[in-house]
Amino acid sequence: MLYLPTRFVSLLTALILVICSQAMASDLPPMVTSYAEKPVQGFNRQVEAASKQDKKWVRQAESISQHYAGSQFKLVRTVPHGNVSVSYLTRIDQHHHKQILMILMLEQSGKHWRLNKAMVSWQCKKGQHFSTDPCH
C-alpha cells in the first residue's frame, strides 16, 4: 500500500473535487466547502470477495458506487479520469429538508476496483453550496 503525506492527500482531494465538479453537467457545479469522510475498508473487503466470485456489480464504477451508497441515493454522474473515477450521488432527506451529496473516488487496477475515499456533504438551502454545517 502506498502511503502519502496527509497534507498532499488533502490538497489532491481538493483539486480533484474542483476539477470533477466542474465537469458535472449543470449551469453551476456544486461547491463543496466541507465534507465528512465515511469508512471504506469494510466495503473494499466486500468488493474483493465479490470480485473473486465474479459478481456483476463489481465490474463498473457506477454499479460499485450505487452498491456503496444504497438504493436511497441516485447516481448523478461518474467522471472517469484515467484509472480513477469520481461518482456523484444525491438523495433528498425529507425529514430534515436537505439534499445530501455523496462523492466516491474509485481506482481501477487491471480489472479490479477499489474505493479510495467516500465523502458526504449536504445542502440546507437552495443554491450550489454543500457543507457539513448543521441545518437550522
Give Rg in angstroms: 15 Å
Query: How is the main sheet built?
Result: 5 strands, antiparallel
Number of helices: 3
The CATH level-2 architecture is identified as Roll
Quick structural overview:
By secondary structure, this protein is an alpha+beta fold.
Task: Please give the structural blueprint.
Elements: H1 6-23, E1 31-32, E2 36-38, H2 41-52, H3 61-69, E3 74-81, E4 84-93, E5 98-109, E6 112-123, E7 129-130
Parallel strand pairs: 1-7
Antiparallel strand pairs: 2-6, 3-4, 4-5, 5-6
List keywords for this structure.
Nuclear Transport Factor 2, Chain: A, 5-stranded antiparallel β-sheet, alpha+beta, 7 strands, 136 residues, two-stranded parallel ribbon, elongated, signal
